[in-house]
Design goal:
globular; 4-stranded antiparallel beta sheet; single chain; 8% helix; 3-stranded antiparallel beta sheet; mainly beta
Length: 155
């Protein structure tokens, strides 16, 4: 059995990707967090000693997320990170880490179907989080959410 590599001094991207993984509560490594080198878990709780937010945790009221637009909210679990909730069509809500994969800047809510990073101008599709224009090389990290009555909750 291969022993995971321990990162003594993780960079900002590795820490943020760890936070997103903790929020999803599955710990799955996503494409936006992958690198060409192997990067294992550090074994450190990165959300201030708080347990990861559980499925069913409310992140916003559905009425707060404009149809065709989005809303930046604090990610549950005490991590200090942000989520971007979008509603491409009435009743269809998706969430992404609001952290641009290029250099960790918080992206803006979508305008005209495009999410833009104010740091260096990377653009992402508001409905899918897919990369439309760099300098980022990957899309935004999806966070599983669902509509539960009048609330948007972690799935």
């Amino acid at each position: 059995m291969k022993t995971p590599e321990v990162i003594a001094n993780p960079n900002r991207r590795q820490v943020l990707c760890g936070l997103v993984a903790a929020l999803v509560a599955g710990g799955a490594v996503t494409t936006a967090c992958s690198t060409t080198a192997s990067s294992g878990a550090s074994g450190t709780n990165t959300n201030g000693g708080q347990p990861p937010a559980a499925a069913g945790t409310e992140v916003a009221k559905l009425a707060q997320v404009p149809v065709g637009g989005g809303l930046l909210v604090d990610a549950p679990g005490g991590s200090g990170s942000k989520l971007l909730l979008v509603q491409p069509a009435a009743g269809e809500v998706k969430a992404f880490s609001a952290t641009c994969p290029h250099q960790g800047v918080t992206v803006a809510a979508p305008v005209g179907g495009t999410i833009t990073c104010p740091g260096h101008g990377s653009q992402f599709d508001a409905a899918t989080g897919a990369l439309k224009k760099g300098p980022a090389t990957t899309g935004l990290t999806a966070v599983n959410v669902k509509v539960d009555g009048a609330a948007v909750v972690l799935a």
